[in-house]
Amino acid sequence: MRLSKIALLAGSGAGAFLMASGACAQSADAPAKAALATDTEVPQPDIVVLGFGQSRQVQSVSALDIARIVPGASPLKAIEKLPGVNFQSADAFGNYEWAVRISLRGFNQNQLGFTLDGVPLGDMSYGTVNGLHISRAIISENVGRTEVAQGSGALGTASTSNLGGTIQFYSDDPRDKLNVTGSGTYGSDNTWRGYARIDSGLIGDTVKGYVSYDYYKTDKWKGYGEQRQQQVNAKVVADLGPLGDISAYFAYSDRHENDYQDLSLDIIKRRGLTDDNISNDYPTAEKFGQFYQNYLAYLGGAAFPYPSVGLSFPAGFGSLDDAYYDAAGLRRDYLADVKMDANLAPGLTLKTTAYYHADKGQGSWITPYTPTPYGAPNVDGTPITNPAAISFRTTEYSMHRGGVVSALTYESGINTFEVGGWYESNTLNIARRYYGMTTGTSNRPAIDYQSNPFRTDWDGKYDTETVQYHVSDTVKLLDDSLVLNGGWKGVRVINNGQLRVGTLASGRIEARDWFQPQASILYHVSPSTELFVDYTENMRAFTASAASAPYAGTQIAFNLIKDTLKPETSKTIEGGLRFRTGGLQASAVGYYVDFSNRLLVFTNGSGIQGLPPTLNNAGSVHTYGGEFAVNYRFMTAFSLFGSYSYNSSKYQDNVTTKDALGNLVILSPTAGKTVVDSPTHMLKGEIVYDQYGFTARVGADYMSKRYFTYLNDQSVPGRLTMDASIGYRFDGDGPLHGFSITGNVTNLTDKKYIATVGSNGFTASGDNQTLLAGAPRQFFVTVKKGF
């Protein structure tokens, strides 16, 4: 990592070029502050703010809303009710990262931008390439609010993947008074969770802070195994008076989770949605590997190495991929940042954040496709003399990244000028290794980090350097009734891959666009009505990893594309209306997106085989649609929220190549097909009661069918899920003050459905083992006490 450059940027935050910002035209707190400052009619607090005062489609949910879902659930679950948000997970908490998927308006997760207090989280991919998941970056109770920009994030958002919108999380500030809070949750599948937080209160009227701890453990809802996590968060804020303020944040997370089995439609038809890994049956898992070795011997005309097994699958199974012995994901993260907001002169402010993130991870499968050789090292390094016909396959990660995000803002008259930038240096080490297994009894728990491999397929080091800047101006006219925003950003991302072991690609590739404009208009028609229109251009940079394109292919293939491969780009225009009066908030927006150079990754074989994917440019995708949201507090105690979205995303071109004679050949006729994992209709709603300490909530979420092949010949049906909660808190004086008890039910109707699509990527056509089942109905009870 080029720490000298980071230090240089931190020391020269007032420079005009290399500075960055988490907001364009308005501060990150603008939506919430605008709603509180200008809308005295709407009862407070509002748990959903529909972006009033913003010239883009933006909504935010508060900590109060997060508190109404299952404690410990991902903050993403709190925003799944917003229009245009497609959230999927195979567990009740939404924390199981292999299954978590979120998309906006047909853009998938790695085409969105994510930040925490302005610190980039990368694309939150499972593969840990350039960031970390929000469920590891912060404990859910410490999230102050979450803001969703469905169409385009602010110019200064620290992201190189935000083609289709941004999701920004903001941590809660420490309390002004000394406070101790603790809670415990117990529920289905032996779920245990504990949370504790201590706030110092103000020390000397200037400094305050908190430290919190969370422990979570649950058995899988099907199959065998567990998922557990422990986290530590700490935050300190110091008020420097007229000079500004300074804050620091720290997060530690250690997560171990046994995986659920990926499914295909064929597996579901034969074995049902409850099919899972056979972690309780090691002998049967060995038979899968023995069968495969017999099959290879049969193809080669050799004698069966396991004659007693023959060419028959174990009873009840019809495919080598029906069930593996076990699989797991392990992640250990350290995240820290220091933020300085300085008042340099009247009207002149500088906001700078320096951050550092370290990650160690491992994703594992017990594979029947690779046997353990005789003499392979055991856990303790001694040779294995009874090797199994299966082995322990891992993808191992080590990442260190650091950077600076800064913005200089000057207010003068009707103008607010801003110039800023972002620099990050990221080093990723990633390897594919195999570890020896013994016959008869498993010698390696999948949920532990492994040592002493017998083989390394590939091992590489990947450096990514990111430079981004932006310039903007906000002009307020007609007594602030008309607000004009304009500006642009530029970005350059350089990826350098160095393969140490293996035959995959090495080399340099760059994505660069120094001018990506953004312009918007906000017009307050009346105190209760506003109109907005926004235009944005964005680019998604390439990512560097041996496990993903373009580095996952051969050196020859990489050399052919490295100088000509174009990064994905988008042009988005949206416009809408917001209205509020009394207890009613409503918004309606329409949008159109021209998405160019759409890069489709075609999966080859089952995921466990680890075959290199194929990367193809599918040309353009055109997207249009509408989003509608209503938040109505029709009585003091009752509030109703509902949203509907319509989205049409279609590929405009076929995937083509040229033959040896230069003739155009169609590889995949994708033109006119709907984008994978892109439901056309989504309808969400909830009703909440909160009065005299009693709370109750019921929510519903519907989405229409989703395709999981590029040619739309395979899909999963639409589904409607519901959840509910009920609770009571003691608000009066006495020993029970601050005590509450809450019950939560997820999947209230016990719907049997397919939750996640694309867990193992997408293919052109045909069935694919890339689906995950949704969790059944589950119950949880939480008690909480503040002191």
Automatic annotation (TrEMBL):
Pfam families: Plug, TonB_dep_Rec_b-barrel
Tagged with keyword Transmembrane: yes
Keywords: Cell outer membrane, Ion transport, Iron, Iron transport, Membrane, Receptor, Signal, TonB box, Transmembrane, Transmembrane beta strand, Transport
Lineage of source species: Bacteria, Pseudomonadati, Pseudomonadota, Alphaproteobacteria, Sphingomonadales
Record's protein name: TonB-dependent receptor
Membrane topology: Multi-pass membrane protein
Subcellular location, principal: membrane
Domain TonB-dependent receptor plug: 56-165
Family: Belongs to the TonB-dependent receptor family.
The organism's place on the tree of life at top rank: Bacteria
Sequence ranges assigned to domain TonB-dependent receptor-like beta-barrel in this UniProt record: 280-748
InterPro entries (UniProt xref): Beta-barrel_TonB, Beta-barrel_TonB_sf, Plug_dom, Plug_dom_sf, TonB-dep_rcpt-like
Gene3D superfamilies: TonB-dependent receptor, beta-barrel domain, TonB-dependent receptor, plug domain
Family matches, as SUPFAM superfamilies: Porins
Subcellular location: Cell outer membrane
Signal peptide coordinates: 1-25
